[in-house]
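User: Quick sanity check before I run a bigger batch. Here is a single chain. Can you write out its predicted 3D structure?
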Amino acid sequence: METARLILLVVHILGFAALLGGLLVQAQLPEKVVTPLMRDGIGTAFVAGMLLVGVLEADGDPLDHAKVAVKFAIGLVILVLVIANLRKERIPQGLWAGLLLLSVADVAVAVAWSSAHS
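Assistant: Done. Predicted structure follows.
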């Protein structure tokens, strides 16, 4: 189970890296779009995160369900916003900034909660 946990954790992190990369590469561009990289990144991170929770639960590891719920909610909002705007020619600057803020918040929740319980 430890190997599955580590693989899923790496895939989860890589998914968020792809999402953030897709967002940050547009920082200097006047027009923002939702890219396939962003879609694949959040989709990968979301699914890997759910599988990771399942593996941890099956292994009997104690989970902070509040953290899981917060990360799930933020990830779901990002996923819905990305999918809903995937085919649009451009997205508003505010939506792009919101996606970036939510993505960073999701990472911050994971890091802050993990270091607080070490």
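The first helix runs from residue 2 to 24.

User: Great, the batch can go ahead then.
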